[in-house]
Please model this.
Amino acid sequence: MSIFIDDKTSVVVQGITGRDGSFHTRKMKEYGTKVVAGVTPGRGGGKFEEEIPIFNTVKEAVEATDANTSVIYVPAAFAADAVSEAAISGVKTIVCVSEGVPVQEISRALLLVKENGCRLIGPNCPGIISPGKSKVGIIPGQITIPGPVGLVSRSGTLTYEIMYQFTLAGMGQSTCIGIGGDPLIGTNFIDCLSAFEADPETEAIILIGEIGGTDEQDAALFIKEKVTKPVVAFVAGVTAPPGRRMGHAGAIISGSEGTAAEKIEAFEKVGVEVARRPVDVVELLHKKWAKIAS
Amino acid sequence: MKLHEYQAKEFFKDFGIPVPAGEVAKSPAEAYKIASEVGKGVVVKAQVHVGGRGKAGGVKLAANPEEAKAKASDILGMDIKGLTVEKVLIAEAVDIAEEYYVGMLIDRRTQKPVIMVSPAGGVDIEQVAKETPEQIFKEVIDPRFGLHSFQALSLAMKLNSDVKKARVIAKIMRALYSIFLHIDASLVEINPLIMTTDEKIWAIDAKINVDDSGLDNHPKVAALRDTDSELPQEIRAREADLSYVKLDGNVGCVVNGAGLAMATMDLIKYYGGEPANFLDIGGSSSPEKVLAALEIIFADPNVKVLLFNIFGGITRCDDVANGIVRALEKLDEKPPLVIRLTGTNEEEGVKILEAQGIKATNSMDEAVQAAVELAKKA
Model:
């Protein structure tokens, strides 16, 4: 079906009545996502667009509906708390879109997420989409088509840029997941690679990384040992100066650690081709597939 | 956000970490006064947000107030790695017998705070990590418990095997964690933490970096920001809620999305140009933000052309085009622009711009190449 979301995904929207929450709930519904509940403290008992019941707490929402997934569109100051609330409410997957969540707060919330056997995607991410089926988050559906390519990325619009190239080339996507631009995230590259490897609908994987941290380097080693499907990568931030945060809280070169060059080298060492321009990713995968076929 | 040494030491004092007496001075006269109050030999330390102050001549000993005044006069106004020294810390000089390193940050792999110590204090810890990593000892901190006493003591005994001294050091480590937690720090460091010849423990340097994402929860800490060490454009960018980093090139760029912005800078370089900046305008298409972005980038006299790279998913390209047109109306001179619009309503967006005589394309590569060419010709 896809990774992490499927036709059994039913969503509770935390922050449903906010500006972003309401806009994106409409978009998710239009796309075909099963949105069964919303949460805004103080608005419990009401209905969103005369259809979706609103509750004061996530627990109440889960008890009343069959929600198994939560998506969070609340301001950064409340987001870690929203993650914690979701973690103990009974949902199994949490997508946190919010950007600017204090790092120590998410460090604590992650403990609850793990303890309750949940998966957190994000924070500071556009979420996840299984083209033609369902989406949880803000990834625009109109730039995707269903197909065999899985995408995992730390970015938002850079992901859309590359995904769109695949759509224009007629190479559809099985799932596209944005894992987020923060230094601490709930789901990393290895988690996604592992899921894509096990997913019968995914035949190739595109990995979009950027400066900061060691997730790409760890992923390269994992690919060498555990991934048989073809992987092609792109890494942003070749021209980023050290020590400066490049927008994303996690996009920072600390000392000499976390440079784009280091990540590109790690991928090339294990046979993962790295595109030099976003527009080259499609061609690189074509070539790799052709090589495998011959 | 970085705090100066003197600001970090105030937190140390509040939380019971011993620091030598001293105060910050903005003039040689103030330095004289403070040195007289301290009453002993002092050290005059430049307060700037860079490492290697000592090597750059920004840290000097002074045996008496007259010397302190002279050293302050030398150091104030000095340029250290591009920053001008506006303040110096005048602190009591102490005799150093041993120097240790103690630091704390959030480790991305374990996703928890980690405390690191080393008996190789007073030097660049990155060098120690490279050359003698066996001299660094770490403990992962469970955020639900904080730093356990037994963890702190175990690490402290790696610094000083005398358990009495180790207990004093361990107490300092736990106080450091309290600060780390209390202000949502991303890094706290004492390098060096020293033991004097008469066996007293002092933190003679202090470093605190605060998580930018935590600042809204700590307005008093946010108010400690030293805008003197920031470029005016950086201050303007922060106030306009734009993410901006100045670079050295002449091709400016405004992009929606940090990853796409980095990829844009990279592509400019790929095609033979030099990026002038990083700027993420986010998902907004408001004319106010566009205008702020234009003004910030063109405040740099190096910039010859500005490239807008917009992928409109949720953001609508016609909204962005209108934002750009309205922003340009506020400017006397129309700067050289290349605009790339792709996504929702891209055709409408391109039409709006071309009606104003502004070239627009939906290809990122074409746009970058056009911008690089324009910059070369200018």
Notes: The CA atoms of residues 26 and 243 of chain A lie 40 Å apart.
